Amino acid sequence: MPSEFDLIARFFTRPAPNAVLGVGDDAALLAVSPGMELAVSTDMLVSGQHFFPDVDPYLLGHKALAVNLSDLAAMGATPRWATLSLALPAAEADWLEVFSRGLFDMAARFEVSLVGGDTTRGSLNLNVTILGEVAAGQALRRAGARVGDDIWVSGNLGGAALGLRFLLGETDLADADEIESCLTRLHAPEPRVALGRALLGVAHAAIDISDGLLADLGHILECSDVGAEIEFVRLPAHPAVVRRLSHALMQHCLLAGGDDYELCFTAAPERAHVVLAAGAAAGVHVTRIGHITAEPGLRMLSADGSVMRLEDTGFDHFK
C-alpha cells in the first residue's frame, strides 16, 4: 500500500516554474510580480454533492481546477499557482493517474503550477486553492456596478443544468450530440480567463455564474446597492435548452440551474463596442441582457415588457 508521500511524489509532484519553491517542503515560496496584487480563491468539490461518484476522473481533474480558474477570471486575474487537498476512500493508482492527468492538462493550458496540498483518507473530497495576480487596484469586483450600466453574460446558459437533469432522469435529450454537448458543459466547464483579463478597465463589476444567473447577479446587485432589469428573451440559451424544454424547465436551467461558469458583468453603455471587442479577442461571444437600475431588486421582463414571476432563485448548499 503506497504511503501518502508516495502518492504525492508519484502523481502530484511536477516542476513549478512559477514558484521559488514548489511541492516537497513545509510550504511553497512564491514571488508576486512588482505592482501586482494577489488574488486567492478556494473551492471544494464533494462526491455526491458536486459530482457523481462514477464520473470520469480525467474530467473531475479538469473541473476541480476549472471552477477555481473561473473565480480568477471574474476578477480579471492571471492564474499562477494552486494547491490541492484530497480526501480519498482508497489509494487507487489507476484513478489517481487519470485524475492527475486531467488536473495537470488544465494547469498546463493556463500556466498554473501546483505548489502544495495535502492528502488523507476519507469520503472523496477535492479542495483546490488558486492564486493569481492582478495589477494593483485594477481587480474586477462585485461592488462596482453603476446605475445605467449594461449587463452582459459570456457564452450561453443552461446546458450544464440540462445535462444534470438528464443524468438524474428528469428529462430526455434528443440525440447523442445534445447529450455530449450538455455533459461537456457540466463536467468540463471552460473558464473565461482571457475574457476577464480583457475586461480590466472596461467592466465596472463582474462575477462568475456558478450558482445560477439570478443568484450570482444578485450578489453584484447587493454589493453595489443597485437593482437590475433583465430581458428574458435576450438570455443566450444553450441550443438544447431552446429546443427541448418546457417553459418552466427552461427558466430553471437559464436562471437557477448553475454550473455555467460563464461571466456576468456590467459596463457603461458607451463602452459596448469595447466589450464586444474584448469578447472577440478572447474568442467568446458576449450578450447584453439588461441594465442596472437605481430601484433595488431584480426584475425579469417577458417579451411584452411585463415582470415575470420567479420562484427558483439559484443553488444554495444549505437548502
Topology, please?
Blueprint: H1 4-12, E1 36-46, H2 57-75, E2 78-88, H3 93-109, E3 113-121, E4 125-135, E5 150-154, H4 159-167, H5 176-187, H6 193-198, E6 205-209, H7 213-224, E7 227-231, H8 239-244, H9 247-256, E8 262-267, H10 272-282, E9 286-293, E10 297-301
Parallel strand pairs: 2-3, 7-10
Antiparallel strand pairs: 1-4, 2-4, 5-8, 5-9, 6-8, 7-9
Compact summary:
With 319 residues, the chain is an alpha+beta fold.
Descriptive overview:
This protein has 319 residues and is α+β, with helices and mostly antiparallel strands. It has two domains: 132 residues, PurM-like, N-terminal domain (60s Ribosomal Protein L30, Chain: A, 2-Layer Sandwich); 152 residues, Alpha-Beta Complex (Phosphoribosyl-aminoimidazole Synthetase, Chain A, domain 2), CATH 3.90.650.10. It is 35% helix and 24% strand. It has ten helices and ten strands. The strands form two sheets. A six-stranded mixed beta sheet has the order 6-8-5-9-7-10, sandwiched between helices. Strands 1-4-2-3 form a four-stranded mixed beta sheet. Helix 3 links the parallel strand 2 and strand 3. The C terminus is likely disordered.
